Amino acid sequence: MSLANRSTLIWLFLIALTCIAAYVGEFSTTNPQIIGFIILALIIKAQLVVDYFMGLRHVKTVWRLILSAFSIVIGTIIFITYMKGL
Amino acid sequence: MKNKLPLPGDLAIWIFILAELGVFGVLFITYSIVKLLNPEIFAEGHEHLNRVAGMINTIALITSSYFVVRAVEAVKINQSVTATRWLIASLLAASVYVVVKCWEYSDTISEGYSLSSNVFYMFYYFLTFFHFAHVILGIVILTVLTLNCSKNLYTSEEHFGLESGASYWHMVDLAWIVLFPLVYVIH
């Protein structure tokens, strides 16, 4: 697959995931599974941006890990604080 | 892949990106904790948010980021004219964000909600304006990249500046990818 085709597919996937997560979020977000899905979508989107838009997929692992940790840690904290509030 | 590729762009921009993400991270965590402590105020504030505006802005930023990726790909095969067009497209998508965000602010202010209304609006304005300021800086950077690209200053061998600016712009996108569900979606 060419670079252009790959980045176009990733862009479309990011848009689709954004729309789905926003649509699902309109429903009862007192449901932990819905919150879990929204957080998972956030982490997947962030990872795709880090890997393919920022181009860190094949650079030194430490850089990729630090950038990946940003969304994973924040996403986990959002999830935990939300669950505590239920 | 055994041989790791070098970081795209300058090391200094990556240090800057990490510092910026650190600040965004602290703000996001603080927002989550304050929300946990003030559930009624945040639930009521969330009801008045313009989620459509948030959604449009998410699509605008992701699309702008994608256009920048295409510009870098075009420069890597020495297609400066194509790259310049992609960069102009990215600026247009970023402009959509600015227009929609200004509309959202004017809408919220006209409804009587300001920074001092309550703790939710204090965080809403602070977080989103902090990000908005980064978008404005990103637009300035994208404009410089576009001008440089139109002058054929980037080639397949030398495009360090373009990659540095592109990385910053993707960081702005990354921060919004977290901010959007945190502030607009989860309620």
Structure report:
The complex is a heterodimer of chains A (86) and B (187). The mean pLDDT of chain A is 92. Chain A has one domain (3-85). Chain A has helices at residues 3-25, 32-53, 61-85. With 86 residues, chain A is mainly α. Chain A contains 3 helices and no strands. Chain A is 81% helix and 0% strand. By secondary structure, chain B is mostly helical. Chain B has one domain (41-111, 121-185): Up-down Bundle (Four Helix Bundle (Hemerythrin (Met), subunit A)), CATH 1.20.120.80. In chain B, 81% of the residues lie in helices and 0% in strands. Chain B contains 6 helices and no strands. In chain B, helix 3 (51-76) packs antiparallel against helix 6. At the A-B interface, helix 1, helix 2 and helix 3 of A face helix 1, helix 3 and helix 6 of B.
Based on the model shown, name its key terms.
heterodimer, A: 86 residues, mainly alpha, 3 helices, 0% strand, B: 187 residues, Four Helix Bundle (Hemerythrin (Met), subunit A), 6 helices, 81% helix
What's this model, at a glance?
Chain A has 86 residues and is mostly helical. Chain A is built from three helices and no strands.
Structural class of chain A: mainly alpha
Q: What sort of overall outline of chain A do the alpha carbons produce when their principal axes are compared?
A: flat
Rg of Cα set of chain A: 15 Å
The largest sheet of chain A, given as strand count, sense and whether it forms a barrel, is: none
